[in-house]
Amino acid sequence: MNQTRTFLLFALLAVAYLLWQAWDQDYAPHPPAEVAGTSTATVTGDATPAATPTIANTAGTSEPVAAQLITVTTDVLRLTIDTRGGSIVRSELLKYPVTPRTKKNPDPAPIRLLDDNASDYFAAQSGLVSADGAAPDHRAVFQAAQASYELSSGQDTLNVDLTWTDPSGVKVIKRYTLHRGSYAIDLDQQIDNGSGKSWDGNAYRQLLRVDRPAPVYSNFLQRISDQSRYGFFGAVWYSPEQKFNKLPFDKFEKEPLQNQVTGGWVAMMQQYFLGAWIPPTKEADTFSTAMVNETGNAPRYVIRAVGPQISIAPGQQASSTAQLYVGPKLPDVMQTVAPGLELTIDYGMLKIFAEPLHWVLAQLDKLTGNWGVSIILLVLLINLVTFKFTNAQFESSAKMRKLKPRMDALKERYGDDRQKMQQAMMELYKKEKINPAAGCLPLVITIPIFYGLYYVLRDSVELRQAPFFGWIHDLSAADPYFVLPVLYTVVMLAQQWLMPQAAGMDPTQAKMMKFMPLMFAVIFLFFPSGLVLYYAVNGLSRLLQQWWIIRRSEATQAKTA
């Protein structure tokens, strides 16, 4: 197999993959954008036969009491808490701007993950339910001591208390604890039973969000260049037994979740960020999902974890704890937050290739401080490991280049008798000790690296808006001036010029070989610039290696003559 054919196969696989992704996004079944009517469905979260709480599947309320919004700021988060339910309705990730920082825009707005805007609605709710006692769910109105909280310099933790009191004597304090440098938030619902009877109920935590709005594109090429639309967007959950599971929004009604889980978590995830409720590791929770249809609004999707029954005698206290993670999908961080949470960095079937590539790049970045330089060093490392195989490939190519006049003579001798010509060529290869399949192994290595690195660049938040040098401010986005795709095209043309055309090649195939660099140029125009950087540097280093081997072969041939 010669190198031109391996490149052709590689190009066809890449094009087929992109077309399939675009088709899947545009024509695969999706839930309707808006459903009229109200939901009459309820979800029971009974962890024991003694309690059968019903949790309303709505973000609204029928209570006339006024609520207020509270702002909580740390060094990495700015939260907005609604005293109605004590729900976190906004979370701004202060270290992650929406657009890259530039001289014209040195302080861009931060990413807002949790959001109370209708088109991007995403809230983290929690509450208590009781079959026969007073309990504040996510619609009850709490009281707060102040309207804003801020983590002071030298302060490592920040507590935000919300209080709810019932005339029966039941009092609940919902306490959020935030930590410096952390996206993990501790929740403690403290229940003080000041009533004259036993209080029995359950604590629950849930995430409620709408599907992402459909993006608007001016053309097909702009559509396939938007890498964010290919990542998973929906609900996910984890259990020690069933591991990591995804539930797209269009399967909420067809495949509802209803599982008893100990040591797991529930989450809503998107390309780089996620929100996750994490119950205590030894607590048995009921995980469930529901779809809420509200009149005039887009459907909202709920994934919740309902805790076991809590029984509190009169005059006694108890509490229910959990942790909320709202932030970036950083593998080292999430491994310390909860088991399996790092699996939300979803590389799919190519995890076996993508994870090692990400690890190597991360180690190189620690040395260089630049992800682009790390990609270049990764190229050199891989080429060093595969040098023996690529060397054999180029030596075979150099020998074939030397034999081209003899192969042309065989082609002229046998004309259209392809079978005899192939037999004669194989005899010539055997005599000259040429292996025509020398290019196969580099292809076997190249394709997994290509797709693995593609997923790393697409889904690793560390590479989001990671600058290189000069005009490249984001290695996860396309090259704005197409310099790298053009460079790679020039390298391919040079490689094609140094490589002899296989004898007996069909004229149509020969034309495709000449057209292939242009096809790659179009494909790479819209790929992440970090991926194109990898292949431009890889192609350039192999071109130099190929040129050196050919020159050495010609020098040896001249010396022998």
Automatic annotation (TrEMBL):
Topology term for the membrane: Multi-pass membrane protein
UniProt entry tagged with the keyword Membrane: yes
Domain Membrane insertase YidC/Oxa/ALB C-terminal: from-to ranges: 371-550
Location within or outside the cell: Cell inner membrane; Cell membrane
Residues making up the signal peptide according to the UniProt record: 1-22
Keywords: Cell membrane, Chaperone, Membrane, Protein transport, Signal, Transmembrane, Transmembrane helix, Transport
InterPro entries: Membr_insert_YidC, Membr_insert_YidC_N, YidC/ALB3/OXA1/COX18, YidC/Oxa/ALB_C, YidC_ALB_C, YidC_periplasmic_sf
Residue ranges occupied by any Membrane insertase YidC N-terminal domain in the UniProt entry: 70-360
Biological role stated in the UniProt entry: Required for the insertion and/or proper folding and/or complex formation of integral membrane proteins into the membrane. Involved in integration of membrane proteins that insert both dependently and independently of the Sec translocase complex, as well as at least some lipoproteins. Aids folding of multispanning membrane proteins.
HAMAP family reported for this sequence: YidC_type1
Similarity comment text for this entry: Belongs to the OXA1/ALB3/YidC family. Type 1 subfamily.
Subunit text: Interacts with the Sec translocase complex via SecD. Specifically interacts with transmembrane segments of nascent integral membrane proteins during membrane integration.
Name recorded for this polypeptide: Membrane protein insertase YidC
